């Protein structure tokens, strides 16, 4: 499959990859000043908590693109659960531009950048903010805002009340909602949605964000060279204290191809990526983030993702799941199944006695373990089917996926 490419858009289009490994951002679109090395020379071009150690001199700014659309610049992903809005806040306004900037534009900028909560459900993820990004010759900051897709109607009203609809006539949008709500955008605020494919954009986004930050791609490793299962901390229910001995290590993503991209949204898509413009969707599963949240709400009475995650963090899945040792009394050594491996998710819950004792926390934890183990297993099958093998790290990573280390990877990626 080839990635979509077009002249005008601010989102996922990019030129074909060069023969050399460094990631090149779309020339006509997203231009953060990446040096000939693969990492951005701008220290500040990274998320605040993960500043890079290098101190390369900045490259000269790219000239402004005179064909770029007028500000404000937005991109949206309207997903099955969450709508994500990216706002580019330009930094270097010159005098002439400042004079030209309308009151409405200034108000929009102030409203979006001075608040981190919008109404009851809209949030700006300040920790995700990317500084010093250059897009189409303009330097600025990328802000990441999200709200439940069920609130699209309220968003359209807000866009109208802030005068956004008078300034923006086209928004670049991905996700199923770009199709589903196309007519609403037209009718309510007279905005056109220019649709881009969500999976094309996903790959361009992963490569873009990785090129900004050497620490972006990481894995959890045991503190010494012993295999994961021989760690003293490696006994369920994996308390936060026991897991704290694991160390987060940057994963070298400089020659990534081929890789398997597992995108956990409401549902899950798995893509084999052979190059920046060359991928296919190998598989997917309907048991994804939406399932975790939906089942947690049903089983625990919680009503938000934050609540569900907090419950899961405090729970113990071994009171809910049936482990190999519950069946074998220990390991099933012949086939290398350790006693503490989950043999049957929720397998203890057929007992009324056990059901009476189980806590909401344990149910939330078991839900998270079930979903993440399943995603890990499918991902592993896809990788081995497609001969996607990595070096030594992979053994640990894959092994971890089968255990609930994956919970932590999951928590990291959803937060
Ligand atoms: N604040 C939050 N509110 C709701 N869900 C959240 C939140 N933070 C993380 N999540 C998790 O992320 C999932 C949604 O992820 P994401 O936004 O990537 O998917 P989506 O784009 O809505 O779905 P899809 O791509 O399948 O259409 C939820 O199902 C939930 O498990
Ligand atoms: C439908 C999408 C692609 C929407 O993002 C996603 O939710 C998904 O991949 N769901 C899993 C569908 C499947 O079973 O393959």
TrEMBL record:
What does the record give under GO molecular function? ATP binding; pantothenate kinase activity
Q: What biological processes does GO assign it?
A: coenzyme A biosynthetic process
Q: What class of enzyme is it?
A: transferase
Q: Which family does it belong to?
A: Belongs to the type II pantothenate kinase family.
Name listed for the protein in its UniProt record:
pantothenate kinase
What GO CC terms are in its UniProt record?
cytosol; nucleus
**Domain of life of the source:** Eukaryota
Which pathway is this protein engaged in? Cofactor biosynthesis; coenzyme A biosynthesis; CoA from (R)-pantothenate: step 1/5
Q: Which reaction does it catalyse?
A: (R)-pantothenate + ATP = (R)-4'-phosphopantothenate + ADP + H(+)
Instruction: Give the EC number(s) listed in the UniProt record.
Output: 2.7.1.33
- Pfam families the UniProt entry points to: Fumble
Name its cellular compartments: Cytoplasm
Q: Keywords of this protein's UniProt record, alphabetized? A: ATP-binding, Coenzyme A biosynthesis, Cytoplasm, Kinase, Nucleotide-binding, Transferase
Q: Where is this region: Disordered?
A: 37-69
Here the segments flagged for biased composition (Pro residues) are 57-69
User: Where does it mainly reside?
Assistant: cytoplasm
